[in-house]
Each structure stands twice: as C-alpha cells, then as structure tokens.
Amino acid sequence: LRDIERVHKKRAHDKESRLETVIAGREGRAKFGKWKKEQGHAGTTNKEKLKNKNFQMLKPKLRNKQKRSFRDKQIALRDALLKDKRLR
C-alpha cells in the first residue's frame, strides 16, 4: 500500500532556510511597523492621555455627552469642524 500511495513525511526546513525565504519575501516592499514620533521629542496626544486617565474621572463627562440633545450635538459638530478648518 505504501508503494502505491507514496505517502511520506515532508522534511522540516532548518532555521537558516526558513530565514532565507522570509528575507526574500521582504525584499521590494514598503517597511511595516508602528509609527514612531519625531525622534522621541514629541509628547502624547490628548487621545493617548484619555486612555491612561482614571475612568471614574471621565464618567460624568461621558454621561453629559450622552444626555445632550440632537441640536446640541449638531452645534458641537459644527463648531468642531469650523475650529479644525481654522487650524489648517
């Protein structure tokens, strides 16, 4: 039966040959990786600061944001867009 079906294990590649194929696949493509700040001199963004902040401090702010009426949300969005436009 073994002669008919020709069943055999696939030989495992050694580390060097695996590394060769990985490096060959990397050639000619853009570099991947996490975006890094300007030489480490830049601070953190407000979004990053909010992530580290104690949630109990943010709770009232988030509760008030959910309570806002549709009109208040419209006005806040308009003001934010106008401010963004001014800063650019």
Note down, in words, how this protein is organized.
The chain has five helices and no strands. The protein is an all-alpha fold and 88 residues long. The protein has a domain of 35 residues. The model has no long low-confidence stretch (mean pLDDT 86).
Biggest pleated sheet:
none
Poorly predicted ranges (pLDDT <50, ≥5 residues)?
none
Percentage of residues assigned to helices: 55-70%
What is the global morphology?
elongated
Radius of gyration: 28 Å
* Helix-strand pattern: HHHHH
End-to-end Cα distance, whole Å, is 75 Å
Total beta strand runs: 0
Mean pLDDT: 86
The secondary structure category is mainly alpha
Tell me what portion of residues adopts beta-strand conformation: under 5%
Tally the helices: what do you get? 5
Keywords:
88 residues, elongated
List the SSEs and their pairings.
Elements: H1 2-5, H2 15-26, H3 46-52, H4 55-67, H5 70-87
Would you kindly provide a brief summary of this structure?
It contains five helices and no strands. It has 88 residues and is an all-alpha fold. It has a domain at 54-88.
